[in-house]
Design goal:
The protein is about 50% helix and about 0% strand. It is mainly alpha-helical. Helix 3 runs antiparallel to helix 5. The two termini are about 30 Å apart.
Length: about 230
Amino acid sequence: MRPILVWATLLALVSGVVACMPTGRSTWPVETYPNVCEPTWVAIEPSCITFARVRGGFAYGDEFSACRISVNSFVDATNRHLQCVSGDLLTAINQAISDSVDTIECYLRQTEGQRSWDKDQLRRVCPGADVPSFYIDMPGSDLASRLGVPNCVVSTPVASYNFAPGDIFSLERCLDEVEEYSRGFAFLSAQNSYDEYVAHLRRKMSMAANDAVTSFNCVAGGGTLC
């Protein structure tokens, strides 16, 4: 997995700047990010930047140092979030593809030589793909609804509408949908949707990391519009 590129650079601990700051309290808190592998994690800049911005800068050398560590930790957290989420999503999609292919192959075996059949009975024999719930933070993504798995092969809960094919024509449509979903080069393929989402998430995490670094540098440098 390619790491996020953070073009901004944290200010060095310049002795002339820090030397003029009082020490303040003995230990300033350093922020950590233990939940970065949760898909719902939100990348919000370290609170030390917000507090320093309100006060017009860092008042203490130790405060400055602790916040710099927090910003480094935040940048690392955005990278780890991208790696965790993209890895977990890829595992879920690969399983969804495998289950979808297994289901359509089961349909084909059970309906061989027939033109129509009882689709409820077909669903009992071929239960369908059990797609896990996965948070997708990208409006319009094909992955947002059951990871994009075609309705005709999704497992059907009790009392829900059964989308399994009931005749040869709907079976052929279902086969086309599964083939397109499972093939990497197809426009509506799971791979194409995955690549789009990971690119979106990479841009989002990169922007959050760069914004935090830029804000820290601005506040540390005495900027008034940070």
